[in-house]
Amino acid sequence: MPQSIPEPIFGETHTVDTFFDAAMQLLDHHDYELVNGKIEIVALKPRLYSRIGVRLVASLVTFVDEHDLGTVLGARFPYPLTEDNARVTTASFIGKSRAPHLENSHLFSPDIAIRTIPPNERARATHDWIALFLNAGTQQVWAVYPDDSIIDVWERINDHTLTVATLRRGDTLTCEALLPGFAL
Question: For residues 45 and 27, what is the distance between their CA atoms, to the nearest angstrom?
Answer without folding.
Answer: 21
